[in-house]
Amino acid sequence: MTPLDADAILITSWFNTALYTLQVFLTFWYLGQFETSKQSRYGLCGMLVVDLVCTIMVLISTRLYVVNYAGLEVVDVIFWTLPVSILMTFASATIEQAFFVSRYWNITKDKWLTGTIIIFILAHDSLAITTVVYVSANSTAQYTSAGTKYTIASGAICAATDVLIASALTWRVNKIHTFYASTRNILRRVGFFAVTCGFTTAAWTIIMIVTLFTALNGWFFVFYTLGRAYSLTLLGNLILLRLANAKDSTVSGSSNYNTALSEPVVLTPLQFSHDSSLRMNNHSVKPQSVDLERQGRQGRISFVDPSLLDRQRHNVDPRDNVKSLP
């Protein structure tokens, strides 16, 4: 096997450092700009720590390959940085997948598919740990038949998990029926968010597997930036989703009354509430109800969504149940 090219290693190091710098900036900007749950803050900070460790491993590997062991064929030695990088890369993938599994569970409460996805996550993590043990015990294990089998298996299951999560979340979101345009927009963005993250990271993982056999320099580049690809794809889409939702909230109107009127309504028969504020006796209610019903049949009045009146009375925005999804 040909040795790694020094230029490719240096380019990987520079590019990875730039990606991590961008990740740090976007993470702190996001946390300072938007209100987030404790779970989301822990997840984003956990990604920063994991990717920091992996970035340090890339820098150390660059020095070892380019300076200390320049020109040495890669099969002759596997540095200790590789097992650590494998663990940290799959840790980034696990955090990103756990984020989406949590969102899927909050929306659907589907314990069967959620459990299946968790099994997939544990499976690729277990194979990643097995790969680390095997590589640590054998300096050339990563490039032998057995070593590549572990690498392919863990990468393939990880990619399949990304696709499964994206497909399940998108399908479930599209099954949710709502009468409100802003709510539909939020749900549509959540589905697009899941597809973008899932298929982007899956494609990056598949490229890593392919380059392991076709271009070792390409594998080095893809593998050592895979964790940042997971983190930045998640973070970038999360920021865009929050910005789009915030824009919707601003455009929809400054008051709950205007917001309510800006939403489409379902044509349902007018219903009367026995509200004490009406101060109406039985004699006056019955003729008025009959007259309004007759006018409705003749098309001279517009029917109103009862929930619209309820929202104005109680100052409730029906979109609140999905605003927290991101």
TrEMBL record:
Keywords recorded for this protein, A-Z: Membrane, Transmembrane, Transmembrane helix
User: Transmembrane helix: present as a keyword of the record?
Assistant: yes
Question: What stretches pass through the bilayer?
Answer: 12-32, 44-66, 78-100, 112-135, 150-171, 192-213, 219-240
**Keyword Glycoprotein listed:** no
In terms of domain of life, where is this protein from? Eukaryota
Q: Which PANTHER family match?
A: CHROMOSOME 1, WHOLE GENOME SHOTGUN SEQUENCE, DUF6534 DOMAIN-CONTAINING PROTEIN
Q: What is this protein called?
A: Transmembrane protein
Native organism: Cylindrobasidium torrendii FP15055 ss-10
The organism's lineage is:
Eukaryota, Fungi, Dikarya, Basidiomycota, Agaricomycotina
